[in-house]
Design a protein that fits this description.
Blueprint lengths: L5 E7 L2 H16 L3 E8 L11 H6 L4 E5 L8 H21 L4 E5 L5 H10 L4 E4 L10 H11 L2 E4 L2 H9 L7 E3 L3 H8 L5 H7 L8 E5 L11 H12 L5 E5 L7 H12 L5 E4 L4 H7 L3 E6 L3 H4 L8 E4 L12 E4 L3 H12 L1 H6 L12 H11 L4 H4 L7
Parallel strand pairs: 1-2, 1-4, 2-3, 4-5, 5-6, 6-7, 8-9, 8-11, 9-10, 11-12, 12-13
Helix pairs in contact: 1-7, 1-15, 3-4, 4-5, 9-10, 9-13
Length: about 400
Amino acid sequence: MVISRIKVAIFTTSRAEFGILYPLIKQMSVKGGIKPLLFVGGAHLVSECGKTINEITSYGINVQDIFDYLLNGDDSFSISKSFGIAVCELAHIFRDYAFDFVCVLGDRFELLAIVNNAIIFKKPIIHISGGEETTGVIDEQVRHMITKAAHLHFVSCKEYAENLMKMGEPAWRIINTGSLNVDNIVKQNRIPKKRLFEELNLDIRKPTILMTYHPGTLEYSISLEQQIMNIFEALELFDLQTVITAPNIEVDRNKIILCIKDVVRTNNNLHYFESLGFQKYHSLIPHCEFVIGNSSSGIVEVPYFKVPTVNIGDRQNGRIRHKSVIDTDYSVKSIRNGIKKALSANFRSSLKGMKFKFGDGHAAERMVEIIRKTDINQEFFRKQLVFK
């Protein structure tokens, strides 16, 4: 007798998101009873973002279909219109493919287009990384909107599970699996330093740092261009080889890229990449003096390596912090002080015994087991608020 497998539609629109989802896709592929259907869109299809769909297929992962929706332009009108196109493109996928669950990760605006279709096509939604906080960016609103639509929540720590319960989600829908980011870090093969630095055209003798800076979409006190220039001015005091990766596709993304490219052209210490890919990214972190910017990876992933993070501004406000995270404001003075602390031998030594908060590298296994045991019945599918 042939036993039908549970089909889970997994959607990815950015390099960082796929890097996190990879261990889950892999675990589903090797574990009996579940079949992942991967749908790829957004920045993965854009040359200016590294066309990272090629990275996905290089791992031997089958792409079920694509959804292409991004317009040229990073202004609010273009992003909003792209969102509308995404809703339409995704409707074809929901019509043409049969699956039991829809799985989305995080808080990107595109996810609302996926969730919108899931609601209309009556597909139960699995949400990964709910309950987190980032009050300095629109992702905060997007994440909580997805929470109220989702039927099953996989969270990275106890505190985030408690946040979901405070939002009226019943405890039985929430599972603290730990973060998929950690699965990747623990289980992937890292590229040896010598080969990695050769591939990235870096000087293996120079102290190296990693920088990623995204638009702070709810920041009004200082211009985006000034934020970037303050970082570079702060770095001028230090002889550091800096690897810079491109920001997410968000409003005003191109302002950041133009500023970065303008400075990179005249500074041999700066190296710009559209995308490193998650294997190179994780392989590089242990060889860095610190990471700098406002990316969630500096809060969630980098602490695993006990490498300092200089976190600038309020994009990541609300997230749980490790001792390794040094928060600064946007001023040159504050950023320089943060860098000095990150380079301090005493501070770096203090991180050796730091306990990591976001899991143990087995999140994907837990998620797959929960999905296999979940019965899609009326109680599961009908969402209700829990009032305390």
